[in-house]
Amino acid sequence: MTQTQGLQRPPIFDSHCHWDHPKLQTLQPQLWHGCQQQGVTDLLLPATIAEHWSQLISLCQQNPNWHLALGLHPYFLSQHQNDDLSLLEQLVAQVEPVAIGEIGLDWHLSEDTWAQQEALFLAQLNLAQAKQLPVILHVRKCHDRVIKLLRQLNFKQGGFVHAYSGNEQQAHTYNSLYFKLGVGGSITYTRASKTRRLFASLPLSYLVLETDAPDMPMAHQQDRLNRPDDLPKVLDVLSELREEDRAIIAQQTTANVRSVLRLD
């Protein structure tokens, strides 16, 4: 593909990419060049643990199209320290990330962690509310609980539900709370019939594209690293499922990300 061909591709925004992961960083700068050739113009970079925040901040300072989020991921609960929340509050004031994340609840973990997860989640939601920042949600097996907490806090900042796996009613509820739903590599698997049907039927205004690179490989690529320049494959499948022009989907999903992040 020539550079001219790459520029003709509709610009798309990867709303969830762990760009600081060593597996992706070892491929630089060729990987970012590949992203640009494929029309992937912007990346939203969620954090996971405090130990990696300084590296992520430095990385995002290298390119204005790499957008910083900071947060404490529920899956890594055992790696979080007592002073991480106060450090998060300080850094949010200093470096002004575009979102708080990746945060949420993961009921795939043992039930004896749920109370601690919820306390961490609520503290970060309150910080996002105070700073008027959207959030990037990680939710597994507990959409109703997350929705209940968002409503109880009267959370108005919105955000993204990463790798959305809920049902249609929950999708409409998230939309009413100003959240967009992450569409990723799962739709490239024909066996994911429920997810494919849902994303084919929901309003396009609900959806954003994501890779979750380097995790969650696309179909037929399980032996290959998932990369942000694979995002057009998600776009292609979504276009087939919805029977809509890929340029329209690219334009709307990119606008959806930028709207939530208030980048316009």
Structure description:
By secondary structure, this protein is an alpha/beta fold. Among the domains are: 64-74 and 81-157; 183-264, no CATH class. 42% of the residues lie in helices and 15% in strands. It contains 11 helices and 8 strands. It has an 8-stranded parallel sheet with strand order 1-2-3-4-5-6-7-8, sandwiched between helices. Strand 6, helix 8 and strand 7 form a beta-alpha-beta unit.
Percentage beta strand: 5-15%
Gap from first CA to last CA: 30 Å
Instruction: Supply the number of helical segments.
Output: 11
- DSSP strand count: 8
Secondary-structure element order, N to C: HEHHEHEHEHEHEHEHEHH
* Arrangement of strands in the largest sheet: 1-2-3-4-5-6-7-8
Q: Mean of residue pLDDT? A: 95
- Largest sheet report: 8 strands, parallel
* Computed CA radius of gyration, to the nearest angstrom: 17 Å
User: Overall 3D geometry?
Assistant: globular
